[in-house]
Write a structure and sequence with these properties.
single chain, 169 residues, alpha/beta, eight-stranded mixed sheet, two-stranded parallel ribbon, 18% helix, 28% strand
Length: 169
């Protein structure tokens, strides 16, 4: 009885969306391919957009696996160098989309903007996925908390990867 009541409450008040198994065809889903330095945004059962990104300067810096978006923040504060959100010298750019890699609760790894747009397409980060500010702002508006993020290093196409993940048919 208590377990059923507890589960019912969690389902109603949970800030994580979508609940249950996901992705389901139609759910938002993100795939980052470190081999090509590209990010695919999938929604409504189709690849909606492919963006160029920057990833780790060493292959192992950007963690691989399937993670969940657990934090979203506009104009994120850069703790390492005490740089306020929105400042022109903030390397995190205008948005932070944090995912739960390596038990860091979305605070250490994320998809974020940049103050160095010429770095996009290169292997330069300390482990995050870096996007142009305009692109990360678009993505930020489209992905809810709970969206899955698959990070992989492969020659497979986004279509094949999305099918294997169950994000498209």
């Amino acid at each position: 009885m208590f377990k059923t009541l507890f589960l019912s409450i969690i389902l109603v008040v949970s800030p994580i969306w979508p609940l249950g198994e996901n992705p389901l065809v139609g759910d938002p889903y993100i795939i980052v391919n470190k081999k090509t330095n590209q990010l695919a945004y999938i929604n409504d059962g189709a690849i909606q957009q492919v963006y160029s990104v920057a990833t780790g300067k060493q292959t192992d810096l950007t963690p691989e696996g399937e993670f969940m978006i657990v934090v979203k923040a506009p104009n994120p504060y850069y703790r390492k160098k005490d740089i306020q959100g929105g400042a022109k010298d903030n390397p995190l750019g205008t948005r932070w989309i944090g995912f739960d890699a390596l038990e860091t609760d979305g605070r250490m790894y994320g998809v974020h903007g940049t103050n160095i747009p010429q770095s996009i397409g290169h292997y330069v980060t300390a482990g995050c996925v870096r996007m142009e500010n305009q692109s990360v702002e678009e993505l930020y508006e489209k992905v809810p908390l709970g969206t899955k993020v698959l990070i992989i290093n492969t020659s497979e196409s986004f279509d094949d990867l999305a099918r294997k993940a169950g994000a498209i048919e």
